[in-house]
Structures are given as structure tokens and as C-alpha cells.
Amino acid sequence: MSAPASPHTSLLHIPHRPFGPRRPRLTRLRCLASLSPASSGASPANDNHLIQTLCAHGRLARAAALLQGLPAPTQRTYESLLLAAARGGDATLAAAVHRRLEADPVFRSDPFLSTRLIEAYATLSALPAARQVFDEAPVKNIFLWNAMLKALALADHGEEALSRLADMGRLGVPVDSCSYSHGLKACIAGSASHEPASARVREMHAHAIRRGYGLHTHVATTLIDCYGKLGTVTYAERVFAWMTERNVVSWSAMIGCYAKNERPGDAIELFQEMMASEADLVPNSITIVSVLHACAGVNALGQGRVLHAYILRRGFDSLVSVLNALMAMYMKCGCLEVGRYIFNWIGRRRDVVSWNSLISGYGMHGFGRESVQVFEEMIKEGMSPNIITFVSVLGACSHAGLVEEGKKLFESMVEYNVTPRAEHYACMVDLLGRAGRLDEAVELIQSMRTEPSPQVWGSLLGACRIHGHVEYAEMACSHLFDLEPRNAGNYVLLADIYARAKLQNQVEVLKDLLEEHALEKVPGCSWIEVKKRLYSFVSVDNKNQQVEALQALIGEFVAQMKNEGYVPDTASVLYDIEEEEKERILLGHSEKLAVAFGLINTGKGEVIRITKNLRLCEDCHAVNKFISKFTEREIIVRDVNRFHHFRDGVCSCRDYW
Q1: Could you give phi then psi for residue 151, rounded to 5 degrees?
Q2: Are 271 and 291 in contact (CB under 8 A)?
Q3: Rounded CA separation 179/181 (Å)
């Protein structure tokens, strides 16, 4: 149930150059192919130039053949071959160049070519060969050290990279901005958990500041990226604010930090600030992808359409990564048909991310069978599914109640060399739990060969909340309280289950525990875009003039609903207060405020699109159904789990969520 197709047609018009790549011009290559590598009249200088030209055009086999008979390759020829081997994924060519270098008395000990060789091996995931080059190099300058650090960090050998960095200090090798950048990435790669990684990044940050590199653009940008990955957004903001010089990579890192850490509104705002700055910065593909993810995060369809037009103007539609993000944005904003249109346009360039996005898109809208069909189509096309593919298709089965289909898919994972991980078990527990098969869900958890993760126990707890199963909820929380002692949501969810079971004493115990440990529930927050501006609303139980006006409008709908037999669902309000006061608190739920704001500030017939950071509660679900029928408006709400399309008093989830 997406928006009408016509508004999107103009945005998705086919440009004169289609999405597909241009056909390469082959004239020069045909001329090159006609040249014989053994031409008697060819000089070494001509052969060197010919090899470099062949490498530039991807003719690696011909270049390798010429190299064999070349008496004196130049430094530039060796470099061209190594760069081409890395670019073309040709490990055999890289090894051949390596052997030739070892036999070359002129360039055997050249630090520049040793650096290029390490970089090529790193790109080709040949870390042992890169180590060999480094260890055998008689002269190790800063560039060689940095290349080795980068190779180790790229291969997730963070501990070894940090050890090599320490060796630099011990041997008196001066570090530079690149050394710190690679070292920071190694801090993330070398740590199995969040805490040591965070401590290491902060320690290296302090070291960089002492050496005068703390505000260097390259180092500061890497710090922003690392802090973003660790979820410490405040530190990233400080680094960004302190930077004296910012380039497009710096801005992109901060935008990406916001987008990845559930602050999409800030990401969009920062992108707008970047575009309005006097630095005349041009976004790159990474910037575009991050902002598209942010638009998807808050249902900012208007902003997404503006970005779509920018993509077409700037030619970013030639990049599959951008098209994948664009497709995901439309689907997460409720425009399923447009997302499928872009998927079709990607055509033969589709990668596993393209397929995963389409499977996930259908699943979050409740079209489980369509998700399974896309999965089957993906297999027929010869694309191998990965970990995320199965998370997406199992999640789709869960939202649609396709238990048997989900079980078959779960059992088939080994056929595709994908080992089930905690997230897949969590999907299966959710699938079985939503369907009321709680005993089977618990048996699955007990059969796991690894320790169940918080995600697995959380799925069971969520199912217990749907079906009011106190015993299994207590079992899940006995583990969750140990695994996530600071997660207030688990306490609140168990308290909700107790409240619905009329176990008020246990509710009070949990409330005391929350207070004792100073835990606060994540407040409900909803976003709505009106006239390309983003507005956010937080669930409140206090009064202010704007909230009162919105609550008054919702109150009028609720009064009408009561005349038709509606009873507010106050069981989720855990305060020991009068029923009337509980009903007033329900009126302050963030999604109700966002709906009221949308009704006031949008035109008749316009779709109201809302995103919420938590699960949609039963009372808001009922109210939205009524409002959609009474006002003859379509309301699309995306909560933390799925989409709800409200139209004519009916929800697309069929009350199964």
C-alpha cells in the first residue's frame, strides 16, 4: 500500500543515459591487441610504455606476458602492474611481479615498490605474502610501516597491528597521521568486545593529541568514524567541533556517525549544513549513502526525493551502492513499488545487497510470501545468500506468520554454507513465539550450541508479552538481567506482562529495581516530515501548550471511539494512578501526537508517514485505525519491527505484530 505511482514517475524518469554502465571504447584496445609482445623492432622503453597502457585498460594477461620477456622493467612499470593486479583481483599477477622483483638487482630493495607490493597483497587478502615482503625489506621507511599497519587493520588483525605500532616507537621510527589512522582502526579490529576497543581508541586519541596530531584532518576523521562505530557519539561530536579544517570525508564521517547511531534527524540537518557551507564541498557516494539511510530512518520521503534528483544530476546512479541505498530508502518510506522499480533498473549489476534490500523491504511491509519468492528468484539467478539474507527472509516469515516456510529456510542454511548465528535463532524464536508456539521456541533456545544472546532472549520476552506467558517471561529475564544489566526496557516489558496478569506486587518490585539501579526507559519518539521539514515528538506525561492542542484533537477522536464501544488500553501505564489519569498519559504517546500534527498540517488526501523508535502499542494501533476511517486518510507508521498501513479502519498487519 504505497503512495500513488504518479508522484514518483517524474523522479524516476529514465535519463538519456540509462542506469547501466557505458560500453567501453575498444578501438585503442584492438590496436594494442594487434601488437606482438615479441616484436623485433620494439625497444625496452616502448615495451614498458605498452605494459603500462595495457594495465590501464585491464589487459592483465597480455601485460604479464610482456613482462616475462622485458629485460629492464622500470619502477613505473612495476607499479602499474601491482596497481592493476590489486584492481583486477589478480593474485597470480601480483605473485609474478613479486618474483620478478626479487630477481631484479635494481629494484629488489626499493622501499617504494615494497610498499606497493604490500598494498596489493592487502587488497588481495594475501596477508602472509604482505608479511613476507615487510619482514624481508632491508630498508623500512615510514611508508612501508604504514602499509603494513593498514594491511593488518584491513584483515582484522588488530592485535598484531598494534604490536607493530609499538615496535615503531621502540625502534625510533617517527609516526605520522597515517600511522595513527591505521592504529585507530586496529583498535576496533583487535578488540572482541566494546569496552577494550573504547579504551584503546581513547588512549590512542590522547597519544595523538600529545604528539600534535589530534586535530589533523586525517586523524580526526578516523576518530569520528571509530567513535561512531563504538556508539560514543558525544566524543565524535567533540572531535568534529574542534576540527580546524574539514573536508568532505570529515563531514561524511560525522553524518554517517549520526545515521548509524539512531540520530537520523541530526544526520539530515548536518548534511544540509554541509551543503550550505562556504567550503563548496561536493558530497561523495559515501555521503549520499549515509544521508539516504538517515532519510529512511525517519521516513523523510521528501528529503529522499530531493536527494534522488541530486543523484541523477551528479551521475551517482552509475554506482550500485548508491542505487541500493536509494531502493532501501523508498521501501523504508513506504514506497514499495518504487523500490522494486529501482531494483529492476539495477539489472545485471545487482549484488547480494540489492537482493537483501528487496527481501527485507517486502518483509517489513508484511509481504512474507513475496519475500520468500524473491529469495527463491535470487537462488535461481545464481546469487549466493549470506548471513543478512537469511535474517531478512526469516524476519519476513515472522511478520507474516509463515512458520513452516521459516523452519524450512532455517534448516536449509547449511546447504548454502551459512552457519546459523544468534541473530538467526532470534528470528526463529520470534517466528515461533508470535505464532504462540512458545514451548517450541524454548526448545530451540535450549538446543543452541552457543550461549543464547540478548537478542534471542529478547525475542522470547517479546513473544511472552504478546501471549501473556509469565513463566517464560521470567525465564528470559533471568538471563537478560545478567546479560544487559543496564537495559531498562527488559524491566519495563516484564512489568507490563505482570500488570496484564494482575500481579501488581511484582510490578512494584520491578519499579523499585529500576529506581535502585537508576535505570530509565528509552522514551518513545516519533518523527513526521511535513513540507520537507522533519518534526519529532516524544511521549510525554507533562503539559505544555503545543502538546495540549494535539492531545485535544486526539481526545476528540477517542471520545467518538468510546461512543462506539472503545475502551482505552491502559494496562501498559505502570503508574499507580487513577484510570482517568492513565488515559491522559495515553493521549501523550508520541505517535498520537505526530498523527495529530500531520492531520493539522497536511492537505486532504495526503498520506501521513510516521516513524517510531519503539513497538507500536495496542492503544495507538486502535486509535490509528479509527482515525484512518474517520478522516479518510491513509496513515503509514513504521515502528521498530515493521510497517503498519492504516486505511479505512484496517491495518495491513491484520493485527498480527
Answers
A1: -60, -45
A2: yes
A3: 5
Q: What is the pLDDT of residues 251-296, one digit of tens each?
A: 999 999 999 998 998 999 999 999 988 777 899 999 999 999 999 9
Report whether 224 contacts 253 (CB < 8 A): yes
For 582, the grid coordinates are: 492513565
pLDDT of 67 > 70? The answer is yes
Q: Which residue has the cell 529522499?
A: 304
List strand residue ranges (DSSP E) for 481-620, in order. 525-530, 533-538, 608-612
Contact 593, 551 (CB under 8 A): yes
CB neighbours (10 Å) of residue 448?
A: 14
CA 411 → CA 384, 418, 522, 600, distances in Å?
Answer: 16, 10, 36, 50
Q: Which residue has the cell 582484522?
A: 156
User: Could you give the CA distance from residue 162 to residue 142 in angstroms, rounded to a whole number?
Assistant: 15
Cβ pair 610, 591 in contact under 8 A: yes
Q: How far apart are CA 596 and CA 550, in angstroms?
A: 6
- Crossing angle of helices 142-154 and 177-189, in 10° steps, is 20
Distance of CA 49 to the CA centre of its chain: 44
Per-residue pLDDT tens for 503-556? Answer: 989 999 999 999 998 988 888 899 999 988 889 999 865 567 788 889 999 999
Supply the mean pLDDT for the chain: 89
Q: Which three cell numbers stand for residue 495?
A: 512489568
535, β-bridge pairs: 528
Q: 495 to each of 391, 540, 572, 636, how far by Cα in Å?
A: 29, 20, 9, 29
Beta sheet of 643-647, edge-to-edge order: 533-538, 525-530, 608-612, 635-638, 643-647, 650-651
How many CB atoms are closer than 10 A to CB 91?
Answer: 17
Predicted confidence at residue 279, as pLDDT, reads 72
Q: What percent of the chain is predicted at pLDDT more than 70?
A: 92
